[in-house]
Design a protein that fits this description.
about 170 residues, 5 helices, 2 strands, about 75% helix
Amino acid sequence: MDKQSLFFTSIVGIVVIALMLIAIQFLAKRLKIQTNTEQKINTSYSIWFGSLLLSFIQFLKVALELVENSIELIIADKSINNTFVAVMEQIAIFTGFSFLFTFLAYYIVHVIIKFSIGNRNDSIEIEKGNVGYFLIKGIVLLTLVFSLITIFEHFLRWFAPSVETPFYH
C-alpha cells in the first residue's frame, strides 16, 4: 500500500460521496419529492435516501479498491508519460460506473415494484408517509445491489490497468 494511493483514494471517496448526495437531491427535486414537513424530515424520505446512499456506497467500495490498485500500478509503471491523466481516467471510469450502476439498479427496482405492487408515485407515497412501501423498495434495492456486486467488480476489472510481465528466452 502506497501512501499516495491511499491519500488519493480517500480524497476520491469523500468527493464522490458528496457528488452522490448532490445527485440524490437533484433526483428528489426532479421527482418533486418534498424532503421535510413541519420542520422535521419525513421517515419515508429518510428510508428512500438511505437506501439509495447505501446502494451507492456498496458499489463505491468495490470501485475504490480498484482505484487504489490502479493508482499503485500506474505510479509504478515507468512507461506512462502523464501519470496524473492516467490516474484521473481510472478514477473517472470507476466512479462513473458506480453512479451508473446505482441509478440503473434504482430504475430496475422501480420497474420491479411497479409490476408487483402497482404504479405508485414516490412523491405521493412520501407525502403520505408510507414507510412500508419504502422499506420494501429499499430492501429490494439493497438485495439487487448485493447480487450485482460481483458482476460489477468483474466488469470494472476490464478497465483496470494490467501488469506486463516480460518473458525472456
